[in-house]
């Protein structure tokens, strides 16, 4: 009897080990340190398409690295449409990260069908890529995300309709952010394409840090009426238009660190506006002209020369 039990136990252990192993497509590796592991797939070693059933456990967190070239439309991801959020480990958001090879010439080519069937993705990040084109509605197959982050690289070919069909909103993920971020990215032209962000009517945080903005206009943000946090750090503009925050009634935190403000009194309209509308400005405002000085948006600390009524 004891013999039989031991043999049974042995079989059981073997089965358990077999089932807990991961299955990884060639070119990918699996880091199982966390309860929901991260698959990292090396673009230079991958055979496309990446097939959903080639991953076990399911690829809730997936990163493609060393990208330099095409993510073929309709041939990059296969079978992912059967991935249901009901099967997620709710301790993590589902995430997809595309990271280009760290070389000046590295490029990413995506098409309108690259992300077909990828509606399961809740966080999307594109890192260090020279993205030559963001075609019309390129992310619409992802439908909605908690965050879209474009960081590093160059966002060439961004157009008014690039983000059409994608929503950014609080999803039920841990530390939900409702965030659009573009940071440390070259934005050719120095301005946002008209209406680029206008589809993001539920977005709560917008970060446009160090993207070389030479100006920003009210219409860039006028549809983002749920906004609570706006960061415009380290850009090239020196003034902001006096209607920039019109309609953004929930805005409560503004970060303009690293802006070389032109502090003529008219240009400082936003200091009084911030007080009246309950907007905290982190780190205050550093004037570049007429002289270098720090002004804080407090009622009497604006500047002796600019007393607002
Ligand atoms: C939604 O996102 C904001 C940050 O943008 C966060 O402060 C808030 O807690 C989130 N709400 C939920 C319900 O997760």
UniProtKB/TrEMBL annotation:
Keywords: Membrane, Signal, Transmembrane, Transmembrane helix
Mode of membrane association: Single-pass membrane protein
Record's signal peptide: 1-22
Compartments where found: Membrane
One of the Pfam families matching this protein, by short name: LRR_8
Descriptive protein name: Uncharacterized protein
Organism name: Tegillarca granosa (Malaysian cockle)
């Amino acid at each position: 009897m004891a013999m039989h039990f031991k043999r049974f136990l042995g079989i059981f252990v073997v089965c358990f080990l077999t089932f807990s192993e991961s299955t990884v497509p060639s070119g990918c590796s699996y880091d199982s340190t966390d309860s929901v592991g991260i698959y990292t797939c090396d673009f230079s070693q991958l055979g496309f398409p990446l097939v959903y059933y080639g991953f076990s456990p399911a690829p809730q967190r997936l990163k493609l690295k060393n990208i330099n070239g095409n993510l073929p439309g309709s041939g990059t991801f296969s079978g992912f449409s059967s991935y249901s959020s009901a099967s997620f480990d709710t301790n993590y958001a589902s995430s997809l990260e595309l990271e280009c090879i760290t070389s000046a010439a590295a490029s990413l080519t995506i098409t309108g069908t690259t992300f077909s069937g990828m509606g399961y993705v809740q966080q999307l990040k594109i890192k260090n890529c020279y993205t030559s084109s963001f075609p019309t509605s390129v992310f619409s197959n992802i439908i909605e995300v908690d965050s879209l982050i474009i960081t590093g690289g160059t966002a060439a070919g961004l157009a008014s309709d690039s983000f059409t069909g994608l929503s950014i909103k609080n999803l039920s993920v841990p530390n939900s952010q409702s965030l659009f971020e573009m940071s440390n990215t070259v934005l050719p032209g120095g301005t946002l394409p008209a209406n680029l962000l206008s589809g993001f009517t539920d977005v709560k945080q917008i970060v446009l840090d160090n993207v070389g903005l030479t100006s920003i206009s009210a219409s860039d943000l006028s549809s983002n009426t749920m906004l609570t946090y706006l960061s415009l750090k380290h850009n090239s503009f020196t003034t902001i238009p006096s209607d920039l925050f019109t309609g953004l009634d929930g805005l409560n935190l503004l970060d303009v660190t690293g802006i070389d403000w032109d502090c003529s009194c008219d240009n400082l309209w936003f200091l009084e506006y911030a007080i009246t509308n309950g907007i905290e400005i982190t780190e205050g405002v550093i004037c570049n002209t007429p002289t270098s000085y720090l002004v804080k948006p407090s009622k009497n600390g604006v500047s002796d020369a600019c007393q607002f009524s």
